[in-house]
Design brief:
- By secondary structure, the protein is α/β, with parallel strands linked by helices.
- The chain has one domain (11-222): Alpha-Beta Barrel (TIM Barrel).
- The chain has helices at residues 11-20, 34-43, 58-68, 82-90, 103-111, 123-131, 142-145, 147-155, 176-180, 196-200, 204-222; strands spanning 22-26, 48-52, 73-77, 95-97, 115-117, 119-120, 136-139, 164-167, 188-190.
- A six-stranded parallel beta sheet has the order 5-4-3-2-1-9, with helices on both faces. It has a three-stranded parallel beta sheet with strand order 6-7-8.
- Helix 4 (82-90) links the parallel strand 3 (73-77) and strand 4.
- Helix 4 runs parallel beside helix 5.
- The two termini are 32 Å apart.
- The structure holds 3-phosphoglyceric acid.
- 3-phosphoglyceric acid (3PG) binds at residues 25, 52, 77, 140, 168-171, 190-192.
Length: 223
């Protein structure tokens, strides 16, 4: 029995995120870095990003990626307000995520036809998200909350609803496999692939190498 139908994310975006398997979290300080970092990720086989709204350059950076690197599945992160939902929708983002679970923000995303995955780390968060029609949830902060062990136990009562999770927060190559091996994980994510200092230093080669490394792991685990 489905208490409330999934309505927070389009089937097309659910599929894109699942196929991507990994979402690179980006903090961009300078608009000129947006297109090169997106291209560096693509070159390494990572085609989904969460561009965080934590810097003044973020919205312009997202616009640049949207128009110049259309192969990227463009997610907007750290979406905390209704105004930010509107901005993400207007620039044509594919989806948006938030660290926490705010029903007003989720409702605004639906009004703007923007696919949305709220952050959860407690059963209460999950119940709020379910009530808002969400089935794809960001598990944040994943590692410090207890990793897959916490998630598996927490999700047991709800799993008949077919929930899928994107763990973020503290992930790296050292622990990525522990998440990717679980069938309830649709994609992992993190900032380690394109760390802020690497972007600031314009070290696109290192970002491509990190992307290749995680892509290889995903291919091995999913084969
Ligand atoms: C996020 O916004 O999802 C987190 O900042 C990602 O966490 P990480 O920096 O530990 O990867």
């Amino acid at each position: 029995m489905q208490p409330i139908e999934q309505r927070a994310m389009s089937p097309e975006i659910i599929k894109k995120i699942d196929e991507a398997g990994v979402i690179a979290v980006l903090v961009i300080d300078d608009v000129k870095h947006a297109v090169p970092v997106a291209k560096a990720l693509l070159k390494g086989g990572v085609n989904a990003i969460e561009l965080t709204l934590r810097t003044p350059a973020a919205i312009e950076a997202a616009r640049a990626i949207k128009s110049e690197v259309p192969e990227i599945t463009l997610g907007i992160g750290t979406v905390l307000t209704i105004g930010q939902v509107k901005a993400a929708a207007e620039l044509g983002a594919d989806f948006a995520v938030s660290p926490g679970c705010n029903p007003r923000v989720i409702a605004a995303a639906r009004e703007h036809d923007l696919s949305f995955a709220p952050g959860i780390m407690t059963p209460t968060d999950i119940e709020i998200a379910i009530e808002q029609g969400c089935r794809v949830l960001k598990y944040f902060p994943a590692e410090s909350s207890g990793g897959m062990n916490h998630l598996t136990n927490m999700v047991a009562p709800y799993q008949y609803l077919g929930l899928k999770f994107i763990p973020l927060g503290g992930l790296s190559m050292a622990n990525a496999a522990s998440y990717l091996e679980s069938p309830i994980i649709t994609a992992i994510g993190g900032s380690w692939i394109a760390k802020r200092p690497l972007i600031q230093a314009e070290n696109w080669e290192a970002i491509t190498e990190n992307a290749k490394e995680v892509r290889k792991l995903i291919t091995e685990i999913r084969k």
